[in-house]
Please model this.
Amino acid sequence: MIIQIDLSSDEPIYLQIRSQVVHGVATGELQAGDALPSVRSLATDLGVNMHTVNKAYAVLRDEGYVAMRRGRGVMVADRAASLTPEAHSLDRDRLADDLLKLALEHRARGGSREEFLSLAIEQAAAAYGVAPGTTPGTTSNPASNPTKR
Model:
């Protein structure tokens, strides 16, 4: 997996790294047990401070996407195997909070509920590799190019 950063973006670099790793996990490009580059190696490759990469990896660890083991480096975690009911509930609560924030921002900009729901359905379909309105369980390539927000 190649991680690229956009230095002109308003999004902090550590969140750009985090988002790309999460995308890799979601699309299957990164599998449980896959090793990620060392902090030093990725920082050098991206031309950023090691603390920036370390912060991204710490956030990913805290969210359960990676495991950091001294001497063995950073590896993609097996979230499905390690997700407790409590962690699932926290993930669901975090998702609900994030969706509420997005809905409120959309509403504050004059957007309608219908437009928000339509966009949410489009993005969910792209994330899961299905066409909007497709019957659940019918999938295509999840690595297809999802539409950006």
Summary: The chain is about 55% helix and 5% strand. Residues 84-128 form one domain. The helical segments are 13-27, 39-46, 50-62, 79-82, 85-108, 113-128.
